[in-house]
Predict the 3D structure of the following.
Amino acid sequence: MKSNTQNNPAKPGHYRLASVCIHVPRVCPTEAIFLDSPQVTHITVNEEFDGQRLDNFLFRTLKGVPKTHIYRIIRSGEVRVNKGRASAESKLNAGDVLRIPPVRVSVVESGLTKVHVPAREFPILFENDGFLAINKPAGVAVHGGSGVSSGVIEQLRQARPQAQHLELVHRLDRDTSGVLLIAKKRSSLRHLQDQFRERETGKTYLALVKGAWPVNLKVIDKSLQKYLMPDGERRVRVVADDHPDAQRSITLVKVRSQVADPSQANLVTSMPHRLCTLLDVTIKTGRTHQIRVHLSQAGFPIAGDDKYGDFEWNRQLMKAGCSRMFLHAWKLEFQNPISGETMQIVAPPSQDLIQMVGGVIENNLQSKT
């Protein structure tokens, strides 16, 4: 293919390192992609992709385009669904018509740049024909993007090339460990995501916070708002309920136990150690960074939280050998999309978390099907 750099200069907002453009067929039956002239493309969603998130659909359709750029064209409104703006989380329906702007991708020696994705399996908590539940380790993103070349879903797809429809059911922060569901069938994906959307799941986390949590503080009902930092990083803050971007967010908190501050583990002193509190945290709404922001705003930051935490305390924790955020997706209750039965998946906390709290976590719970 010949370069058309001189005849077709890049327009503002186009991701351009070279002059190759991706063109998608007007009716997208699979992941077929062609390199063609830079035209606005309209795609009709067929039944195979009914119920899929807009961002996931574009990841598969626009192979080779950086995920950061895909999110950018969604946020800017250049991607339209049935002539209207849509969010990355929007679910597509069969028959929807997508407008996709011209999108350029980088080229190296006439071939698309490929990032090596390592094949990796993760600790499996449960698996059947419809989905699997893994115990996601801390420090691993659930998907690539925003400076991360690959995450759980890309690495799992590499490890299971025969699996055609592996998709994330929900998300966890990169530094949060615990239960993560991955669908193996479209029907299971829709069934499980419907439960999350309708708030029919039960999600309980373990969190270690600085200070002695008051036992009478059991419900945090404060609205949250997403915003962007000057460098483009996404953050969340508490806002008034009448704020135009407010999202109502409800977090339930229960004290599990009080423990000595792990940052003082190596100190030799006659003074009593500061206290921390190990909490069971259940979220009734699944907002971005909800637990981290709610607990921090209440005056009890999570140990190791590098966005909303106590940064001086974090440095003390690091010196004591505590190198991660103490937030663990411990239990998840939902309806099995295959059997219809209610099940509870429990992810045992890792050894580093157990050591941080002196072994007080009950680590012998089993998944209940």
